[in-house]
Amino acid sequence: MTKFTIKSSHLAGFVAEAKKPGETEVEVQVKCSLVTSDKPIFHVWMKHISSLLLSTIPIPIPLIHKFLIILHKNDMADVYINDFKEIMRVRVKEAMKAGDIVTTNNISDITDLVFPDIDIKEDDAVIYGLRTNWRFSLYYDFDRKIVSETLAKELGELKKEAIFNDLYASADANISRAKLEDADAIIFTEGKSDWKHFIIAAEKLGITSKLLFWTTENSVGSDDLYKMCEHYARIPQPKRMVFLFDRDEESILKILRQKEKSGEGFQYWGNNVYSLYLPVPLGRSDDTHSISLELFHSDNDIKTINSEGRRLYLSNEFNNTSGNHLTEDCHCTAKNKYRRDKICIIDCDVFDRQNKSIALSKDDFAEGILKKEPTYNSINFSEFKLIFDVISDILKNRDDNLTTG
Question: What domain count does the chain have?
């Protein structure tokens, strides 16, 4: 853990606003959480923080992507840079055990952020900054009345909002691209690999509508996708925006169904923003399957073995007690996957007798399809027509009374 102890001033805050030009009475802001460096005031604050504190340590400021500064009442400060330990307390969508892999797609909410190796006292002041891709976020509290639980929750909210602002930036870039390319609609999906399936499916099915798919490399949870619907529906959008939800989150499905007009198959949010949840493909049902996009392929296509001998697995291929494969000499260690009530895709934690990992990731499966690797030439996309039919209905909808491109 990179730590420096330096001499500091007894900082009290930043001037929020002077009463009148030239007056000595001012308002001082002692606490703030700013989730984006786009605001001009961020650069003013960071200039002061850098000159007073960060410039005194032997690490060039451009190399700092995360920092935590603890200012003590004796006017000494501990400065932690980049590699200090953080623990996020999160809500996950399903029960998990110690050692399980957590991806952003497993997370439904971030509740707290704590620093387990760093002692923050009640009379300390705190400054925390982090970079999420190309945006910085900043938190400070100079009140010197630290309540650990409150600090953890406020930092957790900052972390969550920082991640979410990164999604906005990616989405905004696609909106600009859609305007430039005169697309009929932009399609936003949960999975980071879903768009790869859709591009080939549209080609195979001869879809003529000009659809632009959000090509993010991040998995997006259903909660975040829902927030994006709310966000973009606040103001008129130049192109139709369609948010496509998986069918495996009953709480989200319940909300979407309440927004849906009978028989339409989609939800209209206003201002050119729409959503839909995956229809049920042939051979699947809500009672037996946790329906994600991969389940729009047949079981045989899902089990296609690639050139490296890897493939996707279905959870019902494994014994519910031991995790051993029912017909092959391999086993799955992810109990939270193969012990589910509903059949789902397993793309990790499958090992052969020599303990070699043999599962194929969803993204590698989609990448093979997108690159038209010979292994996947015979993949059938007929069930994807169910989704494109709903998108076609959205493109025909005129409830929004907006001029669309």
Answer: 3
d(C-alpha 251, C-alpha 246), whole Å = 12
| Judgement on whether residues 263 and 350 belong to the same structural domain of the protein | no
Interatomic CA distance for residues 251 and 258, integer angstroms: 11
Structure confidence at residue 404 (pLDDT): 42
CA atoms within 13 A on the CB side of 124: 21
CA R_g for the chain: 25
Shared domain check, 309 and 276: no
Averaging pLDDT over each range in 94-98, 189-193, 306-310, which range is the top one?
Answer: 306-310
Judge contact between 111 and 90, C-beta under 8 A: yes
Q: Considering the domain boundaries, does residue 161 fall inside one?
A: no
Residues 118 and 15 in one domain: yes
Nearest to 337 by CA among 248, 216, 254: 248
Residue for token digits 């519910």?
A: 320
Provide the residue type at 215 as one letter. T
Predicted pLDDT of residue 97: 63
Q: CA–CA separation, 122 vs 144, rounded Å?
A: 6
d(CA 266, CA 268): 7
Question: Taking Cα atoms as reference points, which of 326, 325, 329, 349 lies closest to residue 337?
Answer: 349
User: Is residue 250 domain-shared with residue 333, that is, in the same domain?
Assistant: no
What is the residue range of 45's domain?
2-156
* Confidence at 183, pLDDT banded by 50, 70, 90: confident
DSSP string, 383-395: GGHHHHHHHHHHH
* Sign of the dihedral defined by the CA atoms of residues 192, 195, 198, 203, in that order: negative
Identify which has the larger pLDDT, 235 or 402.
Answer: 235
The model carries a pTM of 0.67
Q: Identify the CATH number of the domain in which residue 260 sits.
A: 3.40.50
d(CA 134, CA 28): 29
Q: Tokens standing for 108? A: 């439904």
Do 275 and 326 lie in one domain? The reply is: no
Residue 32, token pair as written in the block: 């703030």
Give CA angle at 312 (308, 314), nearest 5°: 150
